[in-house]
Specification:
By secondary structure, the chain is of the alpha+beta class. It is built from two helices and four strands, in the order ββαβαβ. The chain starts with a strand and ends in a 6-residue tail after the last strand.
């Protein structure tokens, strides 16, 4: 099975990756972040990100 692509906020204030690009935890607070990146889930783990509890259920 191919690895899923996940989305994360670009910048210093990031801890989680998101499996849903429309997750409110990702897209909220546009005044603090308007840039997003996408990588395979394994790469997100290597970046030190963990799964969002809101959208990874």
């Amino acid at each position: 099975m191919p690895e899923r692509i996940v989305t994360y906020r670009i910048g210093s204030d990031r801890e989680r990756y998101h499996v849903r690009a429309d997750c409110p935890s990702l897209t909220g607070k546009r005044e603090t972040c308007n840039d997003f990146g996408a990588v395979p889930e394994g790469e997100a783990h290597e970046m030190g990100l963990s799964a969002c509890q809101r959208c990874d259920r």
